[in-house]
TrEMBL record:
Protein's gene: NIK3_3
Pfam families reported for this sequence: PK_Tyr_Ser-Thr (PF07714)
Organism: Datura stramonium
Top-level division of the source organism's lineage: Eukaryota
InterPro entries, per the entry: CR_Ser/Thr_kinase, Kinase-like_dom_sf, Prot_kinase_dom, Ser-Thr/Tyr_kinase_cat_dom, Ser/Thr_kinase_AS
Name this protein carries in UniProt: Protein NSP-INTERACTING KINASE 3
Keyword terms, alphabetized: ATP-binding, Kinase, Nucleotide-binding, Transferase
Length: 331
């Protein structure tokens, strides 16, 4: 579509901090490619998600965050206008190959981890109020023409004052990526995003989905539990995406697994902040953090033998998980 005015049955409005949801029109940015995201007004929470996405993305401007160019509005439909991401999502590209080689080689996967971490650091520590994404996963990390990671889909995001520790809401998100405390209590914080980022790291390492509902002989169930088991057994090579054909750095693999396990500790107070995660991925402070984590034998919040010890137990026991599963599809 060429640049100029966008005027079909919808009208377009540039995104700004002074957001209005009226039916307005204006010129499209002069650029070669853009993407349109149609929101279903009649879907559960569709209108709220639309307004949230417009308001929060208008506040957050960073190299590793998806920039909102504008939106359209009618009585029955909502349309968001974004820059076009030619390489799609991380989830979609993990299984793609060119000339027999994976599109996302080890170097690109490490770069995606770093770029995503930088975007989340900005949301948590450089925005005021801070923004909690609440749905960090490979499907919501987009890739530009240079395969730079761009965090997208802010439909479930929440603003949180820096003086507040958490926000309590109905559980939203994707099963396998939702932090245990959020599943159990509905409380989310920036540490909820840290957990989701840890699962994203495991998606990059394994090339697998966070939860495998298949029933084949190689069923892995919940990926986090499977990875923890392999890590204890010192069988890290078994968790690496076979499409990489052993073309990865063994030391970086060990470090990335350790960072992922630090991020996915069940007790949110033990998880690092995203700024600490970024530094560890850049090679600063991981050894100390990992050593300290190994001295914590039993999380303080475990007060009974019935407290879940596996992530799959949280999924099975949560009374909120059905709602989360229903809202975890593509948006």
């Amino acid at each position: 579509m060429s640049s100029g005015s966008y005027s079909l049955s919808l009208s377009w409005r540039p995104a700004s901090k002074d957001v209005s949801f009226n039916n307005l029109s204006g010129p499209l940015p002069k650029t070669s490619a853009r993407a349109f995201k149609l929101k279903d007004y009649n879907a559960v929470g569709g209108e709220i998600q639309f307004q949230t996405e417009v308001e929060l993305i208008s506040l957050a401007v960073h190299r590793n965050l998806l920039r909102l160019w504008g939106f359209c509005s009618t009585e029955s439909e909502r349309l968001l206008v974004y820059p076009y991401m030619p390489n799609g999502s991380v989830a979609a590209r993990l299984k793609d190959h060119i000339h027999g080689r994976p599109v996302l080689d080890w170097s690109r996967r490490k770069g995606i981890a770093l770029g995503t971490a930088r975007g989340l650091v900005y949301l948590h520590e450089q925005c005021d109020p801070k923004i909690i994404h609440r749905d960090v996963k490979a499907a919501n990390i987009l890739l530009d023409e240079e395969f730079e990671a761009v965090v997208g889909d802010f439909g479930l995001a929440k603003l949180l004052d820096h003086r507040d520790s958490h926000v309590t809401t109905a559980v939203r998100g994707t099963v396998g990526h939702i932090a245990p405390e959020y599943l159990s209590t509905g409380q989310s914080s920036e540490k909820t995003d840290v957990f989701g980022f840890g699962i994203l790291l495991l998606e990059l390492i394994t090339g697998q989905k966070a939860v495998d509902f298949g029933r084949g002989a190689n069923q892995k169930g919940v990926m986090l539990d499977w990875v923890k088991k392999l890590h204890i057994e010192k069988k890290l090579n078994l968790m690496v995406d076979k499409d990489l054909k052993n073309n990865f750095d063994r030391i970086e693999l060990e470090e990335m697994v350790q960072v992922a396990l630090l991020c996915t500790q069940f007790n949110p107070t033990y998880r690092p902040k995203m700024s600490e995660v970024l530094r560890m991925l850049e090679g600063d402070g991981l050894a100390e953090k990992w050593e300290a984590s190994q001295k914590v034998e039993t999380p303080r919040y475990r007060t009974s033998e019935n407290t879940p010890k596996r992530y799959s137990d949280y999924i099975e026991e949560s009374s909120l998980v059905v709602e989360a599963m229903e809202l975890s599809g593509p948006r």
